[in-house]
Amino acid sequence: MAYVQVKCPKCGGFSAVDETHNSAVCQFCNTSFIVKKTINNFNITNNVNVVTVSVVNITGNSDSNYEIVDGVLKKYTGVSTKVIIPDNVKAIGAEAFKDLKITDVTIPDSVTSIGDEAFWGCTGLTNITIPDSVTSIGDYAFCDCSGLTSIIIGNGVTSIGERAFSMCTGLTSVTIPDSVTGIGFEAFLNVLNVVYSGKMSDSMSAAKLGAKVINGYADGKLVFADSSKKILKKANRNISDSVIIPNSVTNIGDYAFEGCESLTGVTIPDSVIHIGDYAFEGCKSLTSVTIPDSVTSIGHSAFWGCTGLTSVTIPDSVTSIGHSAFWGCTGLTSVTIPDSVTIIGEYAFNGCTGLTSVTIPDSVTSIGGYVFCDCTGLTRIVIPDSVTSIGHSAFWGCTGLTSVTIPDSVTSIDEYAFSYCEKLKNVKVRQSLIDYSSFYETPFIKPFHEDWKRKGLCEYCGGEFKGLFTKKCSKCGRKKKY
């Protein structure tokens, strides 16, 4: 296939076209023309011999496509969207590619600097590698390259200019090498995460860079606290498949995989002992998780909003499930909590609408507030004899729950614990614990409530009123309202 340069018969713009084709479309004015006639037109108007028409390299690698002065690339004049910068270029000048519709660029090792606004507005660029030979990146060099999703900054770079990568909204993570000693104001404005393993300074603050700064050691799509890789701090949000966490990791840090919406699976090694707060928050594509026996605690909101999660294995080693750990995991259908667990945090399974049954082990002594709130699919629950208290709104809105047995070990049931359980008719519970506020808007409490009012007793608990002027219930202390 040979490409030749032609001149559009309508607008006069030059284009590179395949000379074997019968027709083509001008890239500037969209005019259709006959290739052979247009080639002749170009040759005649430009005094070019038909036999010696030069072939244009489709990758844009011909030196004729560049304005180069004393080793400085002043301007790219080619038509190809894929650019290979010649090896004789020592510096990419200011605005050399500004606002051009290029999709790929290869920077050779000969280049030592990238000028101000060099690639400003190149929205078609998706990835770029800056070689180790480059020492400086100018102001606004890659500003507004909104299609950029990946960038590798070479280890030779010492300075990054003001807003060099600002408005690169497709970038979710950038790793800055230790060699960098100076970074301009808002260099990474609107970039989600910036990873830096060197010594932190005022210039590396989020306020100065315009982005969240993670001080750590990057390896592929994972960022660790340091080169020992014991603490996993952050994963690239662009992960679109499953991840195997290395055996060196002992702690999955707070927010490590937060927002990795395309993460489909994760392998957690036996070395991990703790899963941090919000560790997998919003991982909507995650379908199953096996937590190894080494893990002892699951942090606050660890799997919050993992709507695709259908099964989770919690091992006997876990002693506590954090606040909101599985909040909104609507795909979960069943959960077995092992005997090792003593603490289930508030909101732990709130909004898990797919849950149909839950077994709470004998090791648990209290069921916290909102733990199973709005678990509308829950039809049965077994509360063990070890439980002594049931928290505020613990089973609020469990509209599928029809019966429950509350053991004699329970001494307190907080307000709204079983409220709005619309089908709850059968409750086996100690008489002294029957309270209107605990079972508000349930079929179970209505007969009691009506009977108490008819007898002049406290409408909430059935206690007697005492007092000469202001009558209060002798059981719950509430004032008489009727």
Describe, in plain words, how this protein is organized in 3D.
By secondary structure, the chain is mainly beta. Among the domains are: 3-52, no CATH class; 63-215, Leucine-rich repeat, LRR (right-handed beta-alpha superhelix); 456-482, no CATH class. Helices cover 5% and strands 25% of the residues. The protein is built from three helices and 40 strands. The strands form 13 sheets. It has an eight-stranded mixed sheet, with no helix packed on it. A seven-stranded mixed sheet has the order 5-6-8-10-12-14-16, with no helix packed on it. Strands 15-17-18 form a three-stranded parallel sheet. A hairpin with a 2-residue loop joins strand 19 and strand 20 (222-224). The chain is elongated, with a radius of gyration of 34 Å. Residues 48-60 have low confidence and may be disordered.
Brief write-up:
This protein has 482 residues and is mainly beta. Among the domains are: 50 residues, no CATH class; 153 residues, Ribonuclease Inhibitor (Leucine-rich repeat, LRR (right-handed beta-alpha superhelix)), CATH 3.80.10.10; 27 residues, no CATH class. The termini are far apart.
